[in-house]
Amino acid sequence: MEKLPKIGIPIIIIAIILIIVLAKSAVTVGSGERGVLYETFGGGVVTDEPPLGEGFHIIAPWNKVFVYNIRQQELSEKGMSVLSSNGLEIKLDASILYQAKAETVAKLHQTRGEEYLQSVVVPAVRSATRSVVGRYTPEQLYSTKRDAVQHEIFEETKKIVEPQFIQLNAILVRDVALPATIKQAIERKLKQEQESLEYEFRLVTAHKEAERQIIEAKGKADANKILSASLTDKILQDKGIEATIKLAESTNSKVVVIGSGDSGMPIILGNQ
Q1: Which SUPFAM superfamilies has this protein been placed in (predicted)?
Q2: What pLDDT is recorded for position 214?
């Protein structure tokens, strides 16, 4: 076996060292991510410069990079147990849409770290949910006030998380689960209210139809009064003469028109 040249051994050692250094120095930040640089000998987390963007980066081998996802993420909270205003236990399911802010992700890392979801977002959502739901009755939560509850939980959670460099995009209340007996009682009440509204609507409709018929009948009666007042004996006689003349002139008529009666109208004889 041939011996390596003396100069070859240092070259191999240097090459190995370079490979290790490059492996420690090369950092790739993926799509939708940002890198937070930590300088071991330079003061720790770098917060006065923009975080590392997507792509390949070379850093000093003694430094570190913490990679954060800055895309919108979803937290699903199922079966949160909270109390209504009258002390009944309510189970609530919600989806929380959040993300780390790209421009302040270094400060997020410095103050809260990579576990910010569990240390900030989850406690904030649960605290806000308990506070908001405690202002409403089960009936309001089940029917009329769900949108208001959803909005208030969002606003209260936002006040907690946004000062801590976390962006809250939405909170969606998917389901409100009440005790079975309470839910049935509310559904019965809502059904009765709906039936009452339908009955009132039918009464209003019937009343309006009755008024319409009265107005229509009154109009007809007034019209008949006006017509009767305008029909004098002279007008009726003239109309009768006109009708008699037309009848006599008809080729299909088989009547004889002679003289006149007591009213001055012609007397019609025969109609065979």
Answers
A1: Band 7/SPFH domain
A2: 83
Closest by Cα among 148, 122, 111 to 133: 148
Q: 128, exposed or middle or buried, with CB in 10 Å at 0-12, 13-18, 19+?
A: buried
Cα gap 244→127, rounded to integer Å: 98
Q: Which of 10-19, 131-140, 154-163, 226-235 has the highest mean pLDDT?
A: 154-163
Judge whether 228 and 220 are in contact, CB under 8 Å. Answer: no
Beta-carbon count within 10 A of 75 CB: 15
pLDDT tens sequence across 204-235: 787 788 788 888 888 877 777 776 666 666 66
Q: Which residue has the tokens 């923009």?
A: 50
Return d(Cα 167, Cα 101) in angstroms, integer: 6
Q: CB-hemisphere CA count at 13 Å for 264?
A: 9
Q: Which residues pair with 173 in a beta bridge?
A: 94
Whether pLDDT at 253 is above 60: no
* Distance from the Cα of residue 197 to its chain's centroid: 25
| The pair of three-digit structure tokens given for residue 32, joined into one six-digit string | 């939708």
